UniProtKB/TrEMBL annotation:
Biological role stated in the UniProt entry: Catalyzes the condensation of pantoate with beta-alanine in an ATP-dependent reaction via a pantoyl-adenylate intermediate.
UniProtKB keywords: ATP-binding, Cytoplasm, Ligase, Nucleotide-binding, Pantothenate biosynthesis
Pathway: Cofactor biosynthesis; (R)-pantothenate biosynthesis; (R)-pantothenate from (R)-pantoate and beta-alanine: step 1/1
EC number(s) from the headed UniProt entry: 6.3.2.1
More about this protein: The reaction proceeds by a bi uni uni bi ping pong mechanism.
Residues the entry annotates as binding (R)-pantoate: 62, 154
Upper taxonomic lineage: Bacteria, Pseudomonadati, Pseudomonadota, Alphaproteobacteria, Caulobacterales
Entry's Gene Ontology molecular function annotations: ATP binding; pantoate-beta-alanine ligase activity
The protein's name in its UniProt record: Pantothenate synthetase
Length: 282
């Protein structure tokens, strides 16, 4: 059975006992509403380490006041069952007071890779993510921590933070788990109506088409514009970005810089009330 703990003290005690017994530990931070994407991180961790810890904490600090903190899907019993079925050893499920005790007043301040794309669309987001992930890494003292490429910029930001702060952990990125039609699995997909869910496949399809076009010699800006137009035609009401970027630092690419460079196409777009993000190697 997956053991559930709610305090940092219990978490540390268990992880330290495992490490004292020579067992390595992997941490999978999540916000719950678990799906196959999260479980793929647990399984990847199990190929690397003996013990796995998943955290479930809907982190208020990464939501702006107008965002969906209250509506975010929650369900600890189902999450615990799924983790149990995946063979996860420990669920760390702190409450807000455990994570942010009264008087909490420290936030990680970021520049660089956190600034464009998600950072521009959600100015509060990466400061909140970096603060809670740093806390989780210090609390759990894992050997490795796993994050999905689905949140590609988040993964790059976390790699940067751990390097910059000398946190003694290996950050492991995991491939994006997708539904059969290609839509990236995401907890927020639960917000989509059946009609919106059918239309959502336009996002990965437009991305694949843009990558194929650029690889066939189309100029980057033309492919980006065609991708945005395809999303709008499919019923997306706003495209926050649909950009080819350098895969490491997410800086802009030159007009035809794809050839020979490590590029990534990243997109975020609104379908009704739901904001979907995705990215692919280009
Ligand atoms: N489809 C997926 N494939 C691989 N990893 C994923 C996938 N979806 C989420 N993850 C990863 O799981 C971890 C926890 O993510 P989170 O709990 O926010 O789920 P989510 O589905 O991304 O939710 P949201 O809808 O809020 O974006 C993150 O490292 C995230 O990148
Ligand atoms: C990494 C994370 C768990 C931090 O709250 C969150 O941003 C997420 O679920 O991707
Ligand atoms: N999966 C990233 C967390 C968020 O969008 O808030």
């Amino acid at each position: 059975m997956t053991r559930i703990v709610r305090t940092v003290a219990e978490l540390r005690e268990q992880v330290r006992a495992w490490k004292a017994a020579g067992e390595q530990v992997g941490l999978i931070p999540t916000m719950g509403a678990l799906h196959e994407g999260h479980l793929s991180l647990v399984r990847l961790a199990q190929t690397r380490v003996k013990r796995t810890v998943a955290s479930v904490f809907v982190n208020p600090k990464q939501f702006a006041p107008h965002e969906d903190f209250d509506a975010y899907p929650r369900g600890e019993a189902r999450d615990a069952e799924l983790l149990d079925s995946a063979g996860c050893d420990l669920l760390f499920a702190p409450n807000a007071a455990e994570m942010y005790p009264q008087g909490f007043s420290t936030t990680i301040n970021l520049t660089g890779v956190s600034e464009p794309l998600e950072g521009a669309a959600r100015p509060q987001f990466f400061g909140g993510v970096a603060t809670v992930v740093t806390k989780l890494l210090i609390q759990a003292e894992p050997d490795i921590a796993l994050f999905g490429e689905k949140d590609y910029q988040q993964l790059q930001v976390i790699r940067r933070v751990t390097r910059d702060l000398d946190l003694p952990v290996e950050i492991v990125g995991a491939p994006t788990a997708r539904a059969e039609d290609g839509l990236a699995l995401s907890s927020r997909n639960a917000y989509l109506s059946p009609q919106e869910r059918a239309a959502a496949v336009a996002l990965p399809n437009a991305m694949k088409a843009a990558i194929a076009a650029v690889q066939a010699g189309e100029r980057v800006e033309m492919a980006e514009a065609a991708g945005k137009a395809a999303l709008e035609a499919a019923g997306f009401r706003q495209v926050d970005y649909f950009d080819f970027r350098d895969a490491d630092d997410l800086s802009r690419l030159g007009p035809d810089a794809l050839h020979g460079s490590k590029a990534r196409l990243l997109a975020a777009a609104w379908l009704g009330k739901t904001r979907l993000i995705d990215n692919m190697a280009a």
